[in-house]
């Protein structure tokens, strides 16, 4: 508030059924004290940029175009942060390979980061949010168990409503 800086994302990402279920589980203490959380997304923006050139521009890379949804979701679940650290890289460039895109053979560069990792220290837990390979899309850990948030659509694009089943397994962990 002091610097008049605000962060926002589509409300359906954190008001959807999957994340609201996660919110209830955390608030009720069903899984115990949260100790950490991991959010992860992978998307081939080099290839995607051929048909969607805005992805190459400032603010169009994965951390900004999609990563903000994961950040918002975890902020809504775990609350404010006390510190943030991160790094990112930009692709060197790309050559069009899809004849139907109208950019076949054209070369272009990226003005936006396409790969990033950040750590946000929440008052409740630690979080590593990045675009490295992950076994699961999202996972929240506590002292003895963990649960996953709903995964992206089978198309590879994120289900921004975060719909999906969340269930308690035999060991007391919530899983998709």
Automatic annotation (TrEMBL):
InterPro entries: GFO_IDH_MocA-like_dom. Residues 20-91 form the GFO/IDH/MocA-like oxidoreductase domain. It comes from the Bacteria. Signal peptide: none annotated. This is GFO/IDH/MocA-like oxidoreductase domain-containing protein. It comes from Candidatus Scybalocola faecigallinarum. The lineage of its organism: Bacteria, Bacillati, Bacillota, Clostridia, Lachnospirales.
